[in-house]
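Suppose you are handed only these lines of text.
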Amino acid sequence: MSLSKKLVVPPGGKTRIADFDPADPLAGVAGAPTTKDEAEAALSANVEVIADLQYRLYAENTRALLIVLQAMDAAGKDGVIRHCFSGVNPQGCKVTAFKQPSATELDHGYLWRIHHAVPPKGEIGIFNRSHYEDVIVVRVHELVPEKVWKARYDQINAFERLLADNGVVIRKFFLNVSNAEQKKRLLDRLADPKKNWKMSAADFAERRRWPEYMAAYEDAVARCSTDHAPWHVIPADRKWIRNWAVSQIVRETLESMDPKLPKIRLDPATIDTSG
Ligand code: ATP
Ligand code: MG
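From them, the structure of the protein bound to adenosine-5'-triphosphate can be written out as follows.
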């Protein structure tokens, strides 16, 4: 079975997050690494291919790739960005982290800041959190009435359709960490002077709402996985599996886009190369 087939959320389906194992070793998936060393070698190979394809995408300058990352704290959004995109030219790639909206952002519709950050033609855009926060944290904390967030699934599908119809290829990843592994990582962070700056008391408070978050994620991925903007649920308890899986799907996506270098517009023979 192919990796993306195994991890994709079927469009229109009744998906349960609990059906995806955060510690899935991906046995039986074609090409899946079985050890950490194998995974690191496969990741490096993917990073190189992604870099080459990004160069072509940039030169072709007709389409864009948008990667959406969502996850509970400490599931590894930052790690995925660092590992999977380490080879790309920063000139053609932009990461946007979506935090709590500013007063100005709140004065606009929730998709205003999102649309502004969509990658232009030729580029890769990575969303570290996204418009999905507007049906996840906003729902869990009841920041808007239920009627308002419930209407957003259709709005998000229409928005992503608009982007796809205009040359933006979209792939969405939910990094699926288990409750126990998240606790371990948060406690490790707290104890590590190099990492504890990342912590806030809220991280533990949010954990207490785990079931509400999972229910919100479940609806988001089930209702907004489409052929043109599929969700993938990535097993995130082991970092090496997680990084390889995301890099592999990004690689396969770029390969299927098959960006082409433009034809040279002049005849090299006519150029005076003397001097
Ligand atoms: P890290 O903790 O790894 O540095 P992070 O993405 O968790 O990265 P934080 O600054 O800790 O960054 O948290 C950003 C917060 O902003 C999250 O709690 C997220 O839920 C919240 N947020 C993002 N978008 C919205 C939104 N539209 N409405 C309300 N809260 C939002
Ligand atoms: Mg955080």
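What can we learn from it? The radius of gyration is 20 Å. The chain has a mean pLDDT of 96.
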